[in-house]
Amino acid sequence: xxxxxxxxxxxxxxxxxxxxxxxxxxxxxxxxxxxxxxxxxxxxxxxxxxxxxxxxxxxxxxxxxxxxxxxxxxxxxxxxxxxxxxxxxxxxxxxxxxxxxxxxxxxxxxxxxxxxxxxxxxxxxxxxxxxxxxxxxxxxxxxxxxxxxxxxxxxxxxxxxxxxxxxxxxxxxxxxxxxxxxxxxxxxxxxxxxxxxxxxxxxxxxxxxxxxxxxxxxxxxxxxxxxxxxxxxxxxxxxxxxxxxxxxxxxxxxxxxxxxxxxxxxxxxxxxxxxxxxxxxxxxxxxxxxxxxxxxxxxxxxxxxxxxxxxxxxxxxxxxxxxxxxxxxxxxxxxxxxxxxxxxxxxxxxxxxxxxxxxxxxxxxxxxxxxxxxxxxxxxxxxxxxxxxxxxxxxxxxxxxxxxxxxxxxxxxxxxxxxxxxxxxxxxxxxxxxxxxxxxxxxxxxxxxxxxxxxxxxxxxxxxxxxxxxxxxxxxxxxxxxxxxxxxxxxxxxxxxxxxxxxxxxxxxxxxxxxxxxxxxxxxxxxxxxx
Length: 531
Hints:
- The protein has 19 helices and 20 strands.
- By secondary structure, it is of the alpha/beta class.
- The strands form 3 sheets. An 8-stranded parallel β-sheet has the order 7-6-5-4-3-2-1-8. The chain has a 6-stranded mixed β-sheet with strand order 10-9-11-13-14-12, sandwiched between helices. A 6-stranded parallel β-sheet has the order 17-16-15-18-19-20, sandwiched between helices.
């Protein structure tokens, strides 16, 4: 059984009482009393907090008492003797677990004192912890064996910083290959996946803060995020995993959308943000890590910047099935993994963009033959948009900062190219921004000066955060018809969900999830490409 544990990182007894009450209300399954956060620390103050907590919760929730060494992430640098005094007193006061550093437990004198205290406790257990805040441990399996060999009754806790998501797989492998009570996960944004799926892999504990202000480690999620955004209560060994691959990814709205829709159809599926930094090599390594571990249960991915072309190339290398349209576009935004480990790739940006354009301009696909379009940008979204317009025989000019990239896209779809300097002379029925210029938080930026816009234009901004960019505001002021990136985003998300599940998502629920997410600072999207 995995315990969702909330650290109590209070400065004094009154604050601890309030935090404990908040943790209980939020649905904590275990408490960790981080006594190294207490000011003027004493054994008496710790004893009182434990007794008060026990009077409130009884035996419903176990308590871990930790007085962390400053070198291992402790808040206040208390002397070793006092920290050990606190742990000994905590056992006497009824704490079920104490957490002590493995590197300090190695010292015979320290080990002897802790073992005597444990022997005098009816229920107390020892968590022996090892933290690395800089990088992953060289060999986590060997470290776990050293911990359990030194004290066979110990619950080993191994936590390290993931500098890249590929660093997480050592921790996940360790959970997969071992059993019993053990605590293993990674810190940092890249380590988020390891915190959430601990329950799927039957880890003993994962930690969640009451709120972002009371987090006690890098990358620690709030209990609200665990329970509402990541459907923690529904996770089990059979949960199928999905996620959005990209960089940056922290503020993607896709987890909120897909997890809400999974819950709506009662599907045992979970969708995660997957920060894959770097280029093709790092993307390929991540995909190899996933596909070589079918026990993780990954079944599909959304793909966003900068990996849409990397994703296509990887699926080609693996002889996967590629939707003909996606191959022609030269980028994919959806990958499925079948039951035999085979890959299938799709691009839902194309249809999402085309539906938004036709609805926004109130025209049919055939009408696009007579439309002139100016497309700013040459990335993954631009390729999908240009492919759609080209298929409908619109007359297209691509404007891009990097000449070679823009000329390549123009050649691929037999359209014209111009430099950004030539935007001052732009003449088009439809102007489309496919860059990230103007996205949150840089909402006062625009890819084209207002004076270059014409009142007879339709202006489409593929950015959806904010829903009305500066470009769209200025276009409206001139009397232009405008199309928000929100429409494209909603369209492609609905198509993607159908690929993931074979079931149609509720459009109203998708729109509600996006709108709520745009107002939530913890899940706010970064760009049009942050699906």
